[in-house]
Each structure stands twice: as C-alpha cells, then as structure tokens.
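Fold this sequence, please.
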Amino acid sequence: MEGAAGRERDPLLRSEIHGFITYADLNFEKLKAEAASRWFRPNEIYAVLANHERFKVHAQPIDKPVSGTIVLYDRKVVRNFRKDGHNWKKKKDGKTVQEAHEKLKIGNEERVHVYYARGEDNPNFFRRCYWLLDKEAERIVLVHYRQTSEENAIAHPSTEAEAEAPTMNVIQYYTSPISANSASVHTEISFSPLAPEEINSHGGSAISSDTGGSSLEEFWVHLLESSMKKDTACGGTSGQSYNISLYFY
C-alpha cells in the first residue's frame, strides 16, 4: 500500500508543459475508464507519452481492439502497430490506409502529432495515433480506438458534450463609430467548433492544421467583413455601424 501511495505522489516529467504535477493528478485509471466515451485532451496525451515508463508498452499489435482501447507502443520496435486486424478506409490506390494528420497544441505551441483513421466496414469506428513532436521522445505512440456517431470525427475531434465545459472566448470587433443619425447593427454568432477535450489548457484551440490554414476566428471575421462589404456596395447598410461579437466555446 505504501508503494502505491508513493507512486501516486511521484512527480511527473514535463509537468511544466502538460500541467499534471503528480501521477495522482493525471488519474490514469479514470482516463482509461473514460476512453470509450471521449477523446483525450492534448495535455493528457502529452502527460502519458512523456511518462510512458509508468505504463505498459506493448511488444506486439493488439488484434481487433474494441472501442475504448488505449495502447502504447514503441514505434521503433513495433513498426507494424497499425496492423490491428480492422479494415480501415483506404486511399484511391485501395492499399494504403487513408489517414488525416494534424498537430495538437498545448498553450501556443504544437506538441503532438495525431493521425486519424476511419473504419471501412464500420464508419462509426475510429482510430487515433498520437506521438510527440519532440524528436527525443517521438518513439512512443498512444493509439486510441472509439466507436462514436459524432460528425467530423476525423477532420475535427469530438463534438459530443462533456461534463467539463471549456473556457468561452469572446472576441468583439467594431467598425466606424456610431453617429447620432446612423442606425446600429449588432450581430452575434455562437457555436461550438471543438469539443472540450480538444481545448488546450489555456483555453485556446487545441488543433493546428499542418496545412497552414487560417483559424476559425479569422474565418468568421473574414466572412462577416465580406458580407458587410457586399451590403455597403448594394447601399443596404450605408452609414450604419456594426458591433460584432463572436462567441467561441
């Protein structure tokens, strides 16, 4: 019992990045219990990978893992860790598994690779493979399998509701000052583009596409600005002032 208690109090490596000070703070047993119902957050993934010595690293691929399975491999040792017995959606050549790739952020820095695959026979079954961008720690991969009916499970992580709500970011934009004779238009857009587990520990977007695309905030601002320009060109909103609030949950 003392050994187990001591393990719970043991400090974790790289806690300054992922935010979990001790093994108890990470609560890996709780993570495993939740693996079938949600995807892990970027800092949780980082903490597990950076402290993989504390967990079992498998020497062979698991055959047909079920939803909720999480498994660690050494990519240098188990090079065929993707050979799991499942039939995944293929590229046009019919041979290579089609995998989307993104980089997850913790704070403002990209920290984790993620590769998404979708079942061919069961389109609601997904696999995610994570490993660190850090070249000195990239050998270990965390593979997570989930059965879920969520949309955009590959391009964007889970949109299912979670108990822990993310921080709401409110961004306001103002055009020219309101004059005494002008009308005032207030526009609000509220939506939840990412699930809580995909929000990083600092409340920002946890996903950074490696294609260099614009952020969701920039996209909506650009869309609204384009709309205002069209209205002005048509004489529909001339002389009006806009107060635009974008709510990102």
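The beta strands are 57-58, 70-74, 100-106, 109-118, 125-132, 140-147, 169-174, 184-191, 207-208, 241-248. DSSP finds six helices and ten strands in the chain.
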